[in-house]
Amino acid sequence: MKVYSAQFLTGAVSAKQYPRVSHPEFAFAGRSNVGKSSLLKSLLNRKKLVRTSATPGKTQEINFFEINEKLIFTDLPGYGFAKVPAAVQRKWQNMIEQYVLKRETLTALIFIVDIRRDPTSLDLELKEWLDANDISYILVATKSDKLSSGERSKQTRKIKQAFCTEGDSEKLVVYSSKNNQGRKELWSQIIKLANQKNAVINEEENPQE
Predict the structure, then answer these.
(1) What angle is formed at CA 62 by the lines to CA 178 and CA 8, rounded to 5 degrees?
(2) Per-residue pLDDT tens for 172-183?
(3) Is 73 helix (H, G, I), strand (E, B) or coil?
(4) Which domains does the chain have, with CATH numbers?
């Protein structure tokens, strides 16, 4: 996928602030400091589009970006950072839940985990919540370059066992923002889902008589 334009649209904390666009939309979600911003930069081949913070929990809004005037990417606040006050975490959780459940253009979540870490209870709770609400997602395991080949294979098996059912293990994309491993595979899944979403939109706008 060649990215010729990537524009920041707005940051939002409520539905009334969301941009009014009809493009297929993909939301990037994961634990704080999981490499979400670096993944976005790598995927879009941009160095300054998303500010990477050394302080986990820094992102406090839903940030919207328009890609090639055809897609919307949203950067969601990270979850599970202990130093963020509980009240703030609850506020973020409510904001994200309302967005995920009610945003009609949302096509799928890019569900990000750190390949170096065993799946946490928060990760598994998010998976269960997405499954219960029938929310599509693409699972991405980041920071693969930080492991040896043997360690990477071991952790990949653990993640598949925790998240993937029989027959859908191919949905896991092993990714490195450093060398762009997995970039082609992730774009392929995004484009496939975007095309399906566009087909549904076109059918709704132009129903056969």
Answers:
(1) 65
(2) 999 999 999 999
(3) strand
(4) 6-12+19-199 (3.40.50.300)
